[in-house]
Structures are given as C-alpha cells and as structure tokens.
Amino acid sequence: MALMIYNTLTRQTAPFEPLKPGEVSIYVCGPTVYADSHIGHAMSALVFDVVRRYFEWSGYRVRHVMNFTDVDDKIIRRANEQGRDPMELADSYATTFLEQLAALNILPATAYPRVSTTMPQIVAFIEGLIVKEAAYPAPNGDVYFSVRGDADYGKLSRRDIDDMRSGSRIAPGEDKDDPLDFALWKAAKPGEPAWDSPWGKGRPGWHIECSAMSLHELDAQIDIHGGGNDLIFPHHENEIAQTESLTGQSFAQVWMHNGMLQLAGEKMSKSLGNLVTIEEFLQHHSADVLRMLVLTSSYRAPLTYTADVVADTERKIERLMSALRPATGGLAEGAAADSLSVVVAKTRAAFRVAMDDDFNSAAALATLFELVRAINTSRDAGLSGATFEAGQATLRELAAVLGLRLEGAPVSQTAAAPFIELLIELRADLRLAKQWALADSVRNKLAALGVTLEDGPNGTTYEVKKLTNQAE
Fold first, then answer.
1. Over the chain, what is the mean pLDDT?
2. Distance between CA 352 and CA 359 in Å, rounded?
3. What is the C-alpha R_g of the chain?
4. Yes or no: is domain 316-401 CATH 1.20.120.640?
5. Residue closest to 380 by CA, chosen among 322, 422, 442
6. Domain with CATH 1.20.120.640 in the chain
7. Where in the chain are all domains bearing CATH 3.40.50.620?
C-alpha cells in the first residue's frame, strides 16, 4: 500500500510520490516571535515532526525547513511597548521556542531561516515579480502583487476573486491599483526597522517572506508545504500566487494543514488571550502527554484541550509504559512466546497500514495498545527472555516513530517502593490466612493512593499512577 496524503489543494487523498526518489522536502510555517509560544504552536510542530519521523523511518532523507517570522508589525508594537529593540525581542523568543521544541522531543529542522537574515533573497524575489509584471512599485515606496494578474488566484482556498473584491477597500496610506492587491514591500515608517531596496528603505510584507525562504532553502518545487489551517487564506494562497508567478512551476505537490487547538471551544491564540504556554504545560506534564494528546485524533481535526482530556491522556501514557515493566517469570518459550511473536509481527504491519492512511496516528496508537495488552499478558503468563524483550523493543521503536519517549523513573526506584512491596507482602499473608476483607482493604487503600495491583500466576505486580500524601 502506498502512502496516501490528503491534499488541501485538491481536497482529495492521493498516493504520495516524491519529486526526487528517496528524498522529501517539507516547508512548515513557523511562529511570529513576539510573545511566549503556546501549545497551539507546539501542535503544528508536533504534527510535522511525526510526518518527518515516519518518512525517515520509511527510509527517506528529509529536508525539513521551519521559518521564524522576526520582522512583523506585532513584533515592532511589542518592542515599542517594552522599550526593547525589535530584533533583540524576536531573537529572545525564537531562542526560547527552539529550547522548548527540544524539550518536546521535536527533531531539529534542517534549517530555521529568519526573515531578517533572508532580506537579499526577498528583495531579489520581488524584483523578479516586477520583471514578470506580476507586481508593481507604488509611488510611495510600497510594492504590491497584482492579484488579478494571476489567473488561478484562489485555487487553494476555493475563493472567487469577484466575491473577494466585494467590500474590499484601499486603506489610508496605501497606494495600490486594486483593493485585492497585497504588499510585498512596505516603505519605511519612523521608528521601525528598515532595510535598503531598489524602492527605498522598508521591510517585506508577511506573505513574501515564506516564499523567498522556501525557494532559498529548498527548491522552486517542494514536496510538502505545511502549517495550521488558519493559514490557508490569505497566507498560503498568496504564497502560491507569488511563487508560481515567479517560477512558472507548481509550488508544492501537497498542501498539508493541521487543525487548531481549542480551549473552551475557541481557537487558542495570543490575540484572544485564551492560551496555555508551552512553558506552563511542561511545568505540570511530560512532553509525551502533549504529543499523545495530538496523536489521538486526526491531525486535520480541531483538538479540544481540557483538564479531563489531559488526565485521560496521562492514563494512556501510563498504559503504554506498563508494558515496559521487567519480566517476572522464567519461561523463555512456549505458547506465550509464540502468541507474542504473532502479535509483534501483526503490530508492525498494522502500524504501517495506519500511518500510510494519511498519517492516521490514532489507528497507529491502537495497534500499540494491542501490543501492550499482549506484552502484559505474556508477562503474567511468566514469559521472559528474547521474545519478551523483542516485544518491548518493538513497542519502543514504533512509539519513537511517533516521537513518544516513554520515559520515567521506574517504580522500583521511587522512595515509596519498599513500603508498597511491604504492603503487598502483608496482603499476600492476609489472603493465605483467608482474611479476605482485610486483604481487599489493603488493595483498595493502595488504589486510592494511585497504586494499582495486578495478580498473576507469578505473583502480584503493581503500577504507580499517582501517589498522594493524604492521611487515612
């Protein structure tokens, strides 16, 4: 089965074939760095990290580019409010975001271009559009893209150009020929950072930046262009118009868009103020929890963030990690080994089928949970040795394809372990003495403290979910 990917441009799912055999180029729009990044930004980075990991696990070489917008009205406004240099402010937030991506186990991109360091390429790109009569300089020093000169403008968002023109107005200070035309270059204003250009000092418009950075870091044609679905219009629509007007070629083979992370039913955003920063999240939860939250539904669907959803996600992580507990028995072969070997083989095949279905991470996770069940069952049956270890190794390998670390201090290393084991021994003695009520009381009180007991043929094992300090 070929890898199938949903393409926003065609509104269809189709087999993926890279432009260059064995190589995949991916450009993903990154954040505008003017404030602390929130978990909505992390969601997009996580989605495309999984896409990249799956390609690499499948044997492809991936060139993955994610940009930083460090020249923008919002950055200038925030810097003025704080009395800081706009470039220094943007750099501090970009540096922090990169540190947070590492904490979230997101693989480093091949390149992280910034607008401020791509200025020569941006100016050259605009000059090329003017030569091709796709753009025009205005008397006031601005440069605009001529939307009506692009015959298929609107093909990504499926918007009709005449409908878009209805109600459009030319704002004060703008000097463009048509209300639909958008700025490629903005003439300098007092107190703003500016760069030299053939049209005078100024700075680029938002949309031209990504087109220039993608062309500079990758090629005129790329395999996948990604980002949040809030960027479909106007940002990605305008990227297509600019790039294809300059190169005369199709820009991206596939346009992938992730859904939005929602808090209380609204898109999480800095402007609305309804956000959870990455820093806040990581203070209370592991990186695996946020990743699992994203993996449990389609990357194209909206994702609701609530305390209950996070708690349920933590339980899923605990379930996966339960399969990594060491073996307790001494059987190395037999029916339990044969059964586990069959499940391991089926898991690998089913995992690939799921991921080949437009990166269906929810279905891929379901295969891992089936493997977890088989590993735990084999442990209870007394299995150990190579087959048991192969099952655990397969779980770790496939979880890593999804970017899950499945790490944490083993229960045996926690300070409470000796006391838990003492209570388990006490419960065993109570059961031998047929004092069932007291034995059940020990189990129930441990459960209330977050310690779950599992009785098996080789004795009782336990899992710590949450230890509380409440007194009985």
1. 91
2. 9
3. 27
4. yes
5. 322
6. 316-401
7. 4-284
